[in-house]
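Minutes, methods subgroup
Present: GH (chair), OT, SY

1. OT presented the first of two proteins processed in the latest run. Sequence and structure tokens recorded below as shown on screen.
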Amino acid sequence: MKFFTNASEKRAFTQDLFRRLAPRYELVNIVMSMGQVGLWRRIVARQAQLPPGGRALDVATGAGALARAIARRSPGARVVGIDFAAAMVRVAQASTDQPAIDWAEGDALSLPFPDHTFDVVVNGFMLRNVVDVAATLAEQTRVARPGGRVLCLEMSWPTNPLFKPLFSLYFFGFAPLAGWLLTGHRDAYQYLPRSVKGFMSPEELAEAMRRVGLRDVTYRTFSFGTVTLHQGVKA
């Protein structure tokens, strides 16, 4: 199935996609990750290393689970969760009573914040959905303070020759079926495995982060290489 012929078409599709998925977005994440998504987010929250009174930005916050994990991990910090789907922002707002989190609607390619605002900028499972990865990374780097950190949690295609066929069977078989049954949106979960398989390798994403000015870029993989956490420091 072919999804897009140009960037505008992808942008329109993904914005509509997440609007439709918003009510059950978090449930599907839990089911499709076999309950591991909470662990991955806690790892990001730990790696954020927010200083007392620090500020964090969660780009493409979705239902807000990563922003909440960071707020729980760093009492006294201020966290902003931003998403370009208004329906997602409403779900995030309704799902939390933590006063340390502010929610906003906005575009990852044009973040509505001044330069050097945040101690850490994070994103979870969003880069493969944007129309311009380099511009998105550059924008996140812009709003990080000098010495601040950018963390990117993303799905990745495993390279282990024994595990790769099993993951392909799961991701192209069970995952679309489960997503369709839980949400009623078949196209969303046909798009998902293709978006992962066609995305950058961890090495390529690390290089893209270096090109926008981040230094000390490192990454580590989880869950047999299916999830990767990248991090870099703003020079």
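2. SY then presented the second protein from the same run.
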Amino acid sequence: MSGRQIMSAEEVRRALIRISHEIVEKHEGTERLALVGIQRRGVPLARRIAGFIAEHEGVSLPVGALDITFYRDDLSMVAHQPVVKGTDLPFDPNGLTVVLLDDVLYTGRTIRAAMDALMDFGRPTAIRLAVLVDRGHRELPIRADHVGKNVPTSRDETIKVRLVETDGVDEVVIERLEPEERP
């Protein structure tokens, strides 16, 4: 694969700060608001956004982690022995506005699975979606409320989000798939 950087560490940081402000503005404050990151890279994104909200609002929001492994509709195609990363929701989502966070929005299937998983823990007042990158090609009627960067892609490309917490560096790279890697 060959790739080119489409977001630097500074651009990732600025996008997350902007998203943190948008979340508070759309919600009209921070009361009854919680953030839930989708395992794996959505979790550090949720924690970072919570940190930015704490800086500019002086409020610590509850942050959770959601593992959607067993809610995926393509589980049999993904792996014979899926890696379960764990769910940690240290709050009751009933009556809260929950903002789901993920790194890349593509077909919408991950988000559908995340909503199904979240509903098993309670009934939030509202569920919103924030993503670092929206690459298009939706298969389900799902859209993000907050987007760091819209990146039109072909199906022959993939977006790789790398974060310090999981990969040792902050950047977003677009790569062209080799013919044998294409779906």
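Chair's summary of item 2: The radius of gyration is 16 Å.
Next meeting: continue with the remaining queue.
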